[in-house]
């Protein structure tokens, strides 16, 4: 059993250098990317996906699940080069190709370049996973600067518009767009005002875009993770909060990226051919209305 496959572990108290991303290579224990019991069935054979924030965390799990199901993947990331290279190795170990694209997805010109390079490499595009995000906890709205507010919105929601707009001419009937929102879009989070606001916007974006593209038979859905053990956690929260992170969920544990990957497979495959405009809640049992 590899370090990235296996049973759920409880994170110890730890804290990385404070930034908006963190490094998966520095996490202890390492997040579980794909569950040891996961059985692939070729559900994405011959497809190509582009995944933002695919270097680590949920994005890495999605990339590896997609590769195991037969898809080639393009990974868009900001600066986690070491993490991205590890993800590429994991995808290639599944016998699929992986293109790494480093840049700021909140920059529309880079979003256009990412799609162009993906098409140059693979010649087709079937799945868009808008997953990249950042968060900056603040105890008061008074502490949220205009710069932070714009940065969070640019990464978390503007980027979805940019990438989807650039990708749309290459999509066709049966293509799928999957957006990562959050449990915080539904229950709120006192310390993540701007982040939670972007996640609420993603829910509305998902619902509206699904209606807009329904006639073209392009499906648009979302996934709303609960507390998941990703690099965002030790890089943005104090060590004592990390130690208890996720423990209050009904299932009594933090979620792992491996818990999310299968949901993205479902939404990208023909298994969900009659599903659009919906959000799947993978949150450890918390009942969310709306």
UniProtKB/TrEMBL annotation:
PANTHER family tied to this protein: NADPH-DEPENDENT ALDEHYDE REDUCTASE 1, CHLOROPLASTIC, NADPH-DEPENDENT ALDEHYDE REDUCTASE-LIKE PROTEIN, CHLOROPLASTIC-RELATED
Keywords, sorted A to Z: Oxidoreductase
Family: Belongs to the short-chain dehydrogenases/reductases (SDR) family.
Family annotation (Gene3D superfamilies): NAD(P)-binding Rossmann-like Domain
Organism whose genome encodes this protein: Saccharibacillus kuerlensis
Segments for region (Disordered): 1-31
Protein name, per record: NAD(P)-dependent oxidoreductase
Pfam families membership: adh_short_C2
């Amino acid at each position: 059993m590899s370090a990235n496959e296996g049973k759920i572990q409880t994170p110890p108290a730890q804290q990385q250098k404070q930034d908006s991303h963190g490094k998966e290579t520095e996490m202890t224990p390492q997040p579980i990317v794909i569950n040891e019991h996961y059985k692939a069935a070729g559900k994405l054979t011959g497809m190509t996906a582009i995944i933002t924030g695919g270097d680590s965390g949920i994005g890495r799990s999605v990339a590896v699940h997609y590769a195991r199901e037969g898809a080639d993947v393009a990974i868009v990331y900001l600066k986690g080069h070491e993490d991205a290279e590890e993800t590429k190795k994991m995808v290639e170990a599944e016998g699929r190709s992986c293109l790494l694209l480093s840049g700021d997805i909140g920059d529309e010109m880079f979003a256009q370049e990412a799609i162009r390079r993906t098409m140059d490499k693979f010649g087709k595009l079937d799945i868009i996973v808008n997953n990249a995000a950042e968060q900056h906890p603040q105890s008061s709205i008074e502490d949220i600067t205009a710069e932070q507010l714009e940065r969070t919105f640019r990464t978390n929601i503007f980027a979805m518009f940019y990438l989807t707009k650039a990708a749309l001419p290459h999509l066709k009937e049966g293509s799928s767009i999957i957006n990562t929102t959050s449990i915080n879009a539904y229950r709120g989070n006192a310390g993540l005002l701007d982040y939670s606001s972007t996640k609420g916007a993603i829910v509305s974006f998902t619902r509206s875009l699904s209606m807009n593209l329904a006639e073209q038979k392009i499906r648009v859905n979302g996934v709303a993770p609960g507390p998941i053990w990703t690099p965002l956690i030790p890089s943005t929260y104090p060590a004592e909060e990390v130690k208890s992170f996720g423990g209050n969920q009904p299932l009594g544990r933090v979620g792992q990226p491996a818990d999310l990957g299968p949901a993205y497979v479902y939404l990208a495959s023909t298994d969900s051919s009659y599903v659009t405009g919906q959000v799947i809640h993978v949150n450890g049992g918390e009942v969310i209305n709306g």
